[in-house]
Amino acid sequence: MGKLSDALMPVSIPEFTFSDFWKVYPKRKGANPKATAEKKYFLATKTVDSERIINSAKAYADECRETDIIETPFVCQAATWLNQKRYEDYAPDPGSKERTAKIAEDMKKRGWEWSGQKWEKIEGDHS
């Protein structure tokens, strides 16, 4: 049995709520209706992992800080940002479930499977 690094171990990550999103989303001057953003958040999380949205919102906030536009009208309204799927403009976090799933899929193609504690060669696989 072969063994690969435990660094590739899948992790369990909790679901994030709209409150988590609202806390990390950059503040803006002017209208930013929370109720509308909340509706758009719940619509988005029907097809996109909440972790991906939260990580992208953090990246957008960092970008806004770097360009010094926090608390200005140049920060996009949260509802618009969600509706336009701007979270897709940011790469998934390296520790995300999305990345873990891609690793598992790639490893399976190579003949390996996660046992819950380590990577093991799939029996009968002659890759």
Task: Explain what the structure shows.
The chain is 43% helix and 5% strand. The protein has 127 residues and is mainly α. The protein folds into two domains: 16-91, no CATH class; 92-122, no CATH class. A two-stranded antiparallel ribbon has the order 1-2. A hairpin with a 4-residue loop joins strand 1 and strand 2 (119-121). It is elongated, with a radius of gyration of 19 Å. Residues 1-14 have low confidence and may be disordered.
Largest sheet: 2 strands, antiparallel
Helical content class: 40-55%
The value of Rg in angstroms is 19 Å
State the separation between the terminal residues, measured CA to CA.
14 Å
The rough form would be described as: elongated
- Structural class assignment: mainly alpha
Return the string of H and E elements.
Answer: HHHHHEE
> Regarding quaternary structure, how should these chains be classified?
single chain
Our count of domains comes out at 2
* Arithmetic mean of pLDDT: 83
Number of strands: 2
| Beta-strand fraction estimate | under 5%
Q: Spans with pLDDT under 50 lasting ≥5 residues?
A: 1-14
The side-by-side strand order for the widest beta sheet comes to 1-2
Figure out the total of helices: 5
